[in-house]
Amino acid sequence: MAEDPKDQNAPLTLEGFWKILDSKLVSFGTPTALIAVAVDFARKSQWKEAGLCLVGGIALWILIQVANKLAPRIDKLLDWMLNNAEKIFLDLYAKLTSDFEGKYYERLKFDCREYEIRGINRGTLQLENLFVPLKMAQTSSEKVSQNIIQAQQALDPLKQQEIGDILVVMMGDIKQRLVILGAPGSGKSTLLRHITLLYATRKQRRLHRKIPKLIPILLQLRNFYEDIIKEPQPSLALVIENAVKKLQSSQPLEPRQGCFAKRLRQNKCLVMFDGLDEIADDAQRQQVSQWVSQQIKDYPDTPFILTSRPEGYKKAPLQGNFLELEVQPFTREQRNKFIQDWYKCRKKEGNNNKVDLGIRDSAIKSANNLIAQIDTSQSLKVMARNPLLLNMIAITHDSEVTLSTKRVDLYKDICRVLLEGRQRAKGLSTSLSAEQKQVVLKSLALELMQQNTQAFTLDETSTHEKTFKEAKSLIKQKLDKFPNQTLSPEDFIKKDDLGVRELMSEREQEGIYELAHKTFQEYLAAVEIEKTKQENILLEALADDKKFAWWRETIRFYVAQTDATNLIKVALGHATIPVLTLVYQCWQGKEAQQIDRAVQNQLKAKLEQGLESDQLDEFTLAAEVKLAYRLSQLNQDLQTLDSYSEQESQAYDSSYITFAEYQLFLNETSSPSILANKKRASEPVINMNFWDANGFCAWLSLRSRKDLGEPGICYRQVTHKDRQQHPCEEDKEYADKEGIRLVRFQVPTLYEQLAYYLAAGKWKEADEETDRLMLQVAGREKQGYLDLDDIRQFPCKDLRTIDQLWVQYSNGHFGFSVQKEIYLSVGGMLEGNQTNSPFNKVLLLPPVRWIYVRLGGSGRYDKMYQAYIRFSDRVGWMRKSGKGEQGIYLQNASTSFL
Questions:
Q1: Helix (H, G, I), strand (E, B) or coil at 714
Q2: How far apart (Å, rounded) are the C-alpha atoms in residues 105 and 213?
Q3: Helix axes 577-588, 616-635, angle to 10 degrees
Q4: Model confidence pLDDT, tens digit, residues 289-332
Q5: How does 825-845 read in b/e, with b if 16+ C-beta sit within 10 Å?
Q6: CA dihedral sign, ordered 142, 144, 147, 150
Q7: Which of 712, 776, 799 is nearest to 747 (CA)?
């Protein structure tokens, strides 16, 4: 209803003003309503009431503003309280009453809350903050590797599951019992402690939202096996009660009689047996295995989990139906997450368990530094797949920052822990100390190095080639020198508790052994050489090109623990590129423990001052060493594509190519000469256009394939995205000056020639090679072309490889993906977005189409044809001529000619 105009023009009275003000204030909410009341009191001269209402309105307004700011946090607090209401209530109930279950859970929490690595006593980290969910894969005990270092994932990631998913299945309608097998240090015990901790803190749903509520029972078999094998054998309930009493010595728990027996009968327990393999005696282990099998039979609806190393389980398997699972090695993502969490916990611990922005930044920097060092080392990358070894790598990095100069300390710690520390931490007796075991291993490792092999056998009649067959007599000779020892060579090599099995790798059913990784052999040999003063072995290797490659890493371990002066002085007399590259690495990388100043000056003169020499041969030698050192750092993690993903096969250089290194490329591709400006020899080369830099990458790729024997190795320039994800210090100064920073990657051997043509800018040859490759991959060499079905079925992986090579080496000008974007931009339509009717297919026939067009017909195929013409013109496939449009080859096409 419209307002009367007369009312609109009426004069505003004081009474009318108060009414309007009241209505407006009330419409703004409660605080302003109070102010309106205050105004009304003021109008009536009731000043006291007006003042109170005014103060109340202002206070309420401030409270509302504060509440709005705090609302998100209050919501989170309420969510947390609702989600943890049960836990809070039960914990409070346990403290206020004599509730046994609550106190039992509290003891479990105390027992399992720390991330425990037996044999390593360096700080305390919280398991809840550090645990990385492990992947499991179904297998059989016969197929599980005992080796602590595994080069690659055992199974397809799609066949792997996390423990939470498996627990839900095993506790469902189909009752299953788990046997979790894994190599030393793979995380079996940590996994059970993590499950126990989550149940004890009532956070089990973190494992899986559907996981049932059960009472966790964790039994370390090494602590109770003596009670189990006694006659008469105890019941499971009695063993559990004894274990509970030992959870805490200061205030031991006294379970109510029959408490656990009742819960077992009600199927309310999750029973976990840890470490069947830790029972040293085979006969006793078999007795315990039979007892466990009987308990599982007595409680058919109760979930059970058993962990063991594969060798121990094979000799004492459980009887019945069991799901055997193998713990999978860490993936790259799991490894990185562990490192990030590890440093966050370590930095937090050093700051009174408080986390602030500075702590977060420090943790991120340290974690990224360690990840980068692991990614550039083949041996570290392989070792970091094992949680135990990764933890030790992190500890060494935390104290030393740079791993390359402290590899000796890292390997020393690993050997100590694997040979003795873990056994002692578990309370197992060891007849030989770690030092005694190393005495034997060092002699064996040096002998293997001198025999030019990694493999040995205890069978002296073995017919295997390239296998050291005198190992048994060598080991026996060393063992006989230890007082009161009757250990046989077989027990020394094969038994975890007595010998060195954790440090060994075995070829199943062949009786052939190796140390877990070649670097362990090289380390132990270097220690033996230093201790027995046999440096002459290494000096001979420096003078023999064939021997040098085999002994190279042993030399690095050797100079890291002694004075390297004499060895480097001899190396300077053998001025070969590989030898000088090694000594340059020992000096420049600060790996050598000691080098006399005079010898350092000789080395500096030969290598650094050689870059400024007027003599071409001296300049070339120095520049070659500099380039070889760069490539040794860039390629030391080189692996085949079968072992690592495409992402892991890439490596990013940490500095830019210098003028001296680029001059080597010019000298090989044109007239040799020294640098015009010798003072800039060690400075990064700048103002390089994209195509010249690609030429350098092509030349370097060919050299590396020949030198390293890796046919698929390639180099390219870093992109802007690469610099963001993998920055280096020199990026700040040279990223915008068109310098050359390398990315190393690998392609299947099939595509190495295409990669070379593209890097060298030989577009015609690359186009023809692409045509040949696509016909070969599709199996259409004889046919000579690809039809639509061939294209639809063309392998995506190969198509992606071809496309990426073209895009990378053409600076985004050429490639299938580039063509696709251009085609869509000119109105083209992809096949998947088209509707294929029989009528439209008939229109594709030339005679039918000619008649259809003459009759004035048109449709989407006309539009597609016009789009194709525009596309062909855009990319240079069509050129106007006197005879109309025709397709021609353009060697120097500017945009996506492929």
A1: strand
A2: 13
A3: 60
A4: 999 999 999 998 899 999 998 888 888 999 888 888 888 888 88
A5: ebebeeeeeeeeeeeeeebee
A6: positive
A7: 712
- Segment (H or E) for 21: helix 14-27
Q: Which of 360, 417, 336 is nearest to 132 (CA)?
A: 336
Decide if pLDDT at 508 tops 60.
no
For the CA atoms of 894, 895, 897, 898, the dihedral, rounded to the nearest 10 degrees, stands at 120
Q: What is the DSSP letter of 751?
A: G
Mean pLDDT, the chain, integer: 80
Please name which of 88, 669, 129 lies closest in space to residue 353, comparing C-alpha atoms: 129
The confidence score (pLDDT) of residue 2 equals 41
Mean predicted confidence (pLDDT) in 889-894: 42
How many angstroms separate the most distant Cα atoms in the chain?
A: 123
- Is the distance from CB of 279 to CB of 313 less than 8 angstroms? no
Average pLDDT score over residue span 350-359? 78
Query: Computed over its alpha carbons, how large is the radius of gyration of the chain?
Result: 37
What is the enclosing helix (H) or strand (E) of 291? helix 282-298
d(CA 360, CA 344): 7
Tokens of residue 86, six digits: 């049960």
Residue 505: its H or E element: strand 504-507
**Residue 609: CB partners within 8 Å, gap ≥ 6?**
622
Measure CA 387 to chain center: 11
Q: How far apart are CA 557 and CA 310, in angstroms?
A: 33
Please check whether residue 184 is in contact with residue 117, taking contact to mean a CB–CB distance below 8 angstroms. no
Query: Minimum mean pLDDT among 64-68, 562-566, 640-644, 782-786: which range?
Result: 640-644
Q: Where are the alpha helices (DSSP H) in 236-280?
A: 236-245, 259-265
Length of the chain: 898
* φ/ψ bin of 638: left (φ > 0), alpha (ψ from -120 to 50), beta (otherwise): beta
- Distance CA(681)–CA(137), nearest Å, equals 54
Residue among 26, 31, 83, 80 at smallest CA distance from 53: 31
Are 385 and 329 in contact by the 8 Å Cβ rule? The answer is yes
**Inter-axis angle of helices 565-573 and 577-588, to 10 degrees?**
150
For 4-42, the pLDDT digits (tens) are: 444 444 554 555 555 554 554 444 566 667 777 777 777
Mean pLDDT lowest for which of 119-123, 250-254, 465-469?
A: 119-123
| Distance of alpha carbon 380 from alpha carbon 400, whole angstroms | 15
Q: What is the pLDDT of residue 838?
A: 54
CA 492/CA 333 separation, integer angstroms:
36
E-strand ranges in 550-679 read 651-652
- Tell me the average pLDDT across 220-239: 88
Any long-range contacts for 814-819 (C-beta under 8 Å, 24+ apart)?
814/763, 814/893, 814/896, 814/897, 814/898, 815/896, 815/898, 816/898, 818/895, 818/896, 818/898, 819/871, 819/875, 819/896, 819/898
Angle (CA) 598-602-603 rounded to 5° is: 115
Q: List strands edge to edge, sheet with 512-515.
A: 467-468, 455-457, 512-515, 504-507
Burial of 551 (0-12, 13-18, 19+ CB in 10 A): buried
Angle CA(644)–CA(589)–CA(709) in degrees, nearest 5?
A: 40
CA 12 to chain centre: 78
